[in-house]
Amino acid sequence: MVPEATFTSYSGLPVVKASPWKADIPAYMFFGGMAAGSSLLAAGGDLTGRPALRRAGRFTALIGLSATMATLVHDLGRPGRFLNMLRTAKLTSPMSVGTWILSTYGPIAGVAAAAELVDMLPERRVPALFRLVSAVGRPAGFVAALTAPPVAAYTAVLLSDTATPSWHEAYRELPFVFVGSAAAAAGGVGMLAVPPDQAGPARRMAVGGAVLELVAEQRMESSMGITAEPLHQGKAGRWMRASKALTITGALGSLLGGRSRPVAAVSGAALVAGSVCTRFGIFEAGQQSARDPKYTVVPQRERLDRGEPTRYRG
Amino acid sequence: MIGKTSLFGPVNPARDAGYDDPPARKGFFTDTSICIGCKACEVACKEWNEVPDNGFDMLGMSYDNTGSLNANSWRHVAFVEQPARPTAPPVDLGMPTLLHDGVADDGQQTTVAGEDRPDFRWLMSSDVCKHCTHAACLDVCPTGSLFRTEFGTVVVQDDICNGCGYCVPACPYGVIERRERPEAAKNVGIAQKCTLCYDRLGAGMTPACAQACPTQSIQFGDVDELRERAKQRVEALQAGGVTDARLYGADPEDGVGGAGAFFLLLDEPEVYGLPPDPVVTTRDLPHMYQRAVVAAGALLLGAVLSFLERRS
Amino acid sequence: MAEAHPVGFQWVMEAKLRGAKIIHVDPRFTRTSALAHTFVPLRAGTDIAFLGGIINYVLQNELDFREYVVAYTNAASIVSDEYTDPDELDGLFSGFDPETRTYSPESWQYAQQEHEGDTRQDMHEQRETSSAQQFGSHGASVSSALRDDTLQDPNCVYQILKRHFSRYTPEMVEQVCGVSPEAFREVCEAWTQNSGRERTTALCYSVGWTQHSVGAQYIRTAAILQLLLGNIGRTGGGIMALRGHASIQGSTDIPTLFDLLPGYLPMPSASKHPDFQTYVDSIRKPGAKGFWDNSKAYTVNLLKAYWGEKATAENDFCFDYMPKLTGDHGTYRTVLDMIDGKVKGYFLFGQNPAVGSAHGRAQRLGMANLDWLVVRDLVEIESASFWRNSPEIATGEIVPEECRTEVFLFPAASHVEKEGTFTQTQRMLQWREKALDPKGDCRSELWFLYHLGRLLRERLAGSARERDRPLLDLVWDYVPPEHQHEPWGEPSAEKVLMEINGYEIATGRPLSSFTEMKEDGSTLGGCWIYTGVFKDGVNQAARRKPASEQSWVAPEWGWAWPANRRTLYNRASADPDGKPWSERKAYVWWDEAAGEWTGHDVPDFEKTKPPSYRAPDGARGVAALAGDDAFIMNGDGKGALYVPQGLIDGPLPTHYEPVESPFRNALYAQQGNPTRKDYPRPDNPINPSFPDEAEQVAVFPYVFTTSRLTEHHTSGAMSRYLEYLSELQPEMFVEVSPALAQERGLEHMGWCHVITSRSAVEGRVLVTERLIPLRVEGRVVHQVWLPYHWGAGGMVTGDSANDLFGITLDPNVLIQESKVGTCDVRPGRRPTGPALREYIAGYLQRAGLDTGRRTPILTTGTAGSHTDGREADEGAQP
């Protein structure tokens, strides 16, 4: 047993403020990741002749995309506020960078999904504009796939670029946890939506994503020091335990019974749920770490006590 | 525009932000050794900036019923009662022998004036936005609502802020906050914090809090000169036997590149609710992006591999 | 001081920055203590014992500033050998009459001085009318006494003082005040080492110090100490009263007190002042030295200011128009008379007695029994809303539907909405411009009183009744032509100030000094001490020259009375020969070459009277003052260590226990101030003290005191109605030490209530080590502290701490003892409704007060019957 760290605070009050964000933000991260992974699957499906995978991927991306916009606008309060973000581009703001990534990826992925819709219509009735959409569907799908990975990765930077102890201290591994989680979610959706004969890449992506997420998360915890504690406590702890269980279950199911449609569906659903839990778990852990002065004060105090205050060195 | 020390290290923030010939950087030196806890700063700030009340809740934290810096309190006076450490631990936990109600005999474990009571202290300190050289709130703001003024201070433009709330967890001091109440107040949903009275500075006036401070605990002026003054003050105090005196936020090489509002404290920063070694989160941002790019690449590669394997 | 006077405290902080040592003596650790070098906690109500101990330390070690003391104080004066000290009389001075509880002061006089002062009958009337207050500035009407400049004569003041204070030893201070000998010694050493030729020490007190049954004597003790150490009349010295409001000094200079006229002229008495000459002679005391000799001129000018050309030498300047005192018309007597139905109407100007005055219940019951009540305030304060929201509604003592008082609430203009002056604690007048017009029907006091007078005069116009003449003959013309176009006719405050300053009637030339006031009626002036504020027709109070552009005394910032003098009695800043005591402390000195007094301040002395001047025999008044009689307002020209005349409770301060005290007086058999003014009525019970039975005393075992928080202003009328102040201290609370919390089972932030024989008030518990139990007379005593800002109105409401106090007054000035009392503290909220009165009745019964029995005031000769407090029965507690 490591003895409880002793530290001083002002009446036990937090030093930093927890973000004012609610469930919108982890949901946003989940949907963004799922959309990004799905665009990749869709493009692959397109290239490798798996139309079901392509179609499912493009639609999932559209659903994810719509959900991200919905959660974002809900968080901001009204749609107009999103536009304020487009008045500038700031590299120092991961949210600004993310806005532009999303603003690039979103319409293209949207077009790809639209093309899929158009292609489902009876051919003779399609107006000229729709035919144009259909024509750019394929390149749009490829461009969407190329712009998708940043959508999955930037949300890690978004969280880490804060003074929230359990987010900031996680910045080295969190992008890997998040892309892993995105891949697992997208793969999981693919396994749910696509017949097993076309879902091979989705299974492999799901398993690979799950493994990456689990490994990266483990490494992350060991590099976070005391700020890893909240990942095991309270609400965050419950989310993270659920995440781990669902992800492992889903990955094993995919590996062992992925070719069976029911097993694939259950495993896929477990991976999607696992990804949701990961996002909420990481989110909550950060919020909890901000509300307890211990996670702000102790690491900083330890630096000072080691005689290593943060100083600029040329 | 991006210089070597734009994210970390000593820099003139106004010049770094693109002002060609900015006026001298302005800031506060808050000398808590002469703070009398009158809270005139809190009230003057609210009066001038039309900041709403923060509710009528007694907190039971000495005389602090404000609690913290927040959207509705841009100055916050902390009160720290530091009880004397008893020279011997109380041993007798049984009922004291009361010979007479309220009057105990000499055997009672009651601390009485002049006995076992070394140096009880009541520390008071008026906290405020630090107006960091490297301000995380400003860095992470996606709309440009938070901006660097010509005076080197950091100010929210209420009409541009979209209430995304990103600045709130970004601040290493827990200063900025989105206003949630009262419902009828202006700027609900908007990030709020000290502006160092930008409107007053523009008119050549002193910020309201410093103007109201009766004891010169809050000193306003050019940061360079204030730093010099602070250095002399802390030296004088230490020479006078106040060995606990120290400066906080006055070093341009510290984790935020030096604060525009810095402090003379009489105890460790965390005693007052301040982070002991704050760092601007964007110091690590290049590294974060680097990791994210690698992760994104890994996702792309992973996707490719997912398909390649089948074909091979 | 930091708590209630944060703006003034900046100078203390500045002094600290320059190396001054700050000592804070207070029952509890406050914001002031936090910034002081040394904090000395003491038991509330024991300050005379504490300061007396320091005086004893000074005298025993001969640390007084001897040259100063011999030259400028009455230390060398010989007192009548009939005088007997409390030292020998168990705490009473000679001349005491147990029947009336007053002194016959004949034996207190200087030796071989023909007694022409007060008699016992006078003392009784003075206590009724608090007219002893006039001596605050008049001094004794004595002329020169026999002297022994060696200070060896056993009957000289110095030796009397030494004997009187000899029992105030450090051990006694520890026993009575609970102050450790180490802390006490530190204070003694710091004070004495920082006094003398080269250094001076200032004493600042907040006016809670006066709110004791021995309040005037608290200040006297401070004065003795500061005189002994040479700290009066010198830069950096003095005794600073930190007044409770912006212009309370102004409201005693031009008073809102029943017993004083402007400039500390006494209110005439119906029995003692049948005519003008008698009145004037009673002030100037023919034959005495000093500036009161001119009091006829001061009075004539005042009467001329009131009645203008109607006031002539032939009709004694309308002296007969003046109302006359017939007894106690003080605020507390008036309130009790209200309860008894003897008062019909009541005006309240910016005062909130329902919350701010002692015995709140009596205040509210009194106000509920009037025909009418006029309240002028910024908001509807509790004194205007008592009929519908006072605690007595819940108890059924006031029924809104039946309350007979008709309340007229007039909205008042705030200080930024009207022009005028504030007079602060240094007697400095500062002019204030109006920043904006008041809103709606809000109006200034000046407007209200002027138009009230105008309307009354209009109603009485044409009356032939004699009694209406004073009103009809008043000069009442304060609205200048340029104001008359204003919709509401605001009087000109400058015109009022000009009348206060005074002018030559024929020419209108403003007087530049009160020495220009004439006795023949050719000048007028409303307040002689303010003459000069309009010198040369310039509003001197409006001057605001920055410190950087004038000397460090800053004579051109505002204007200080008298004659813009910043330090009173500053002749004492130079030695008897007129040379500064030290270069460092040079302030005012005699310039031999120029033949005049000069220096940094306006000399408080006749400008060309040399230090060597000695008055010829038979001289009187100002001419009788010698060149080294620095205390020019006193009848003997000397600072009074010993006061042979004018104080009702004795010529020297003596420690008496507070009226309510869990302890018996360790210094004397006499427990409390024997001459205090009390109101023995069933609605004014006083908690038991010695010589009551110990178990009765133990019903209220703790000491409590009240004061202000920085965040609120007195009764809260100006703070509880503002959100920015209310949020800073939103709830009534009670501060207790951890030990008391444990003893009574009080939880931090839980509820508790404090009980006295008057009422019970509740608040949240604030457990803090800032309250420290003290060891007094070998026992631990807990002190409880309450702020007194809350009431039923405003944004934040709560019980009023002043409801806990009863009414007992200092005999000299009729100020209430409202800074110390005894109480009980219990966890939880107090009972409400009729149960509250039953709850109090239970306490009265246990304390033996239910029968109407009162604690005897005289306790000399009863020492043998004292029972040890430790035998009290705990089971008697509820």
UniProtKB/TrEMBL annotation, chain A:
It holds the Pfam family NrfD. The keyword Cell membrane applies. Residues 300-314 have a biased composition (Basic and acidic residues). InterPro entries: Electron_transfer_protein, NrfD-like. The chain crosses the membrane at residues 25-47, 59-77, 97-118, 139-159, 174-194. One of its GO terms (cellular component) is plasma membrane. It is found in: Cell membrane. Residues 290-314 are annotated as: Disordered. Keywords: Cell membrane, Membrane, Transmembrane, Transmembrane helix. Belongs to the NrfD family. It is a multi-pass membrane protein. This is Formate-dependent nitrite reductase, membrane component NrfD. It comes from the Bacteria. The lineage of its organism: Bacteria, Bacillati, Actinomycetota, Actinomycetes, Geodermatophilales.
UniProtKB/TrEMBL annotation, chain B:
[4Fe-4S] cluster 4 binds at C141, C161, C164, C167. The keyword Transmembrane helix does not apply. Its cofactor is [4Fe-4S] cluster. PANTHER family: FORMATE DEHYDROGENASE, NITRATE-INDUCIBLE, IRON-SULFUR SUBUNIT. PROSITE patterns: 4FE4S_FER_1, 4FE4S_FER_2. Keywords: 4Fe-4S, Iron, Iron-sulfur, Metal-binding, Repeat. The keyword Metal-binding applies. Coiled coil: none annotated. [4Fe-4S] cluster 1 binds at C35, C38, C41, C213. This is Formate dehydrogenase beta subunit. Residues 1-21 are annotated as: Disordered. One of its GO terms (molecular function) is metal ion binding.
